[in-house]
Amino acid sequence: MKERLGARVLLFGGPGDEAVVESILRHMRHRSDVLSLAGRLTIPQFVAAVRRCDLFVGNDSGPSHLAGAAGVPTLAVYAGTIDPVQWGPMGPNAVTIYRGMLCAPCYYSEIAKCTYQVACLRRLPVEQVWEAALRTMLPRWPDLRRRCPDAWRRTNNLVADGATAQVP
Fold it and tell me: Do 79 and 114 contact (CB within 8 A), yes or no?
């Protein structure tokens, strides 16, 4: 997001998520441009902060549902452990992306039980998530183009495609 769109990145997390967020930060190229709010916000403060975002990317979690319900363009990345159509975030700009597999949804509550090593999540290509993120931001695209005029040139194959994307 930083490289392709010049985006500022915020990492959210609840109390106890600080170590996970720190691990994510260690793997990012532009770490100095990322702000971690993990463990620092109450739920009302999170909702106020996320409303200022152009995009929220999350997993099957409460924050994804809150962001979607707040009307923020929300991309929820799901594994095949649940049905994203049934359990995905709701809202005018909320979408889910997942890799459909014959075994999904399995409804395993413990990932260790998966005989396929969670292939439904591990084999979800980053480029597919990137394209879904761009499609999710379409409602705010005119404003984004004004703030970052050359961002649209750095994107490729921007295609609108439904509310739930299933990767073959």
Answer: no
Residue extents of the structural domains in the chain: 2-158
What CA–CA distance (Å, rounded) separates 74 from 92? 9
Distance in angstroms (rounded) separating the CA atoms of residues 139 and 60: 23
Cis peptide before 105 (omega within 30 of 0): yes
- pLDDT, residue 68, reads 97
Of the pLDDT bands very low, low, confident and very high (cuts 50, 70, 90), residue 152 is low
DSSP state of 154: G
Alpha helices (H) in the chain, listed in sequence order: 2-5, 18-26, 43-50, 62-69, 84-87, 119-122, 126-136, 141-147
CATH architecture of 2-158: 3-Layer(aba) Sandwich (3.40)
**pTM of the model as a whole:** 0.82
* Mean pLDDT within 51-68: 95
Average pLDDT over residues 45-61: 95
Instruction: Give the closest residue to 78 by CA, choosing from 51, 57, 55.
Output: 57
Number of Cβ within a 10 Å radius of residue 53: 19
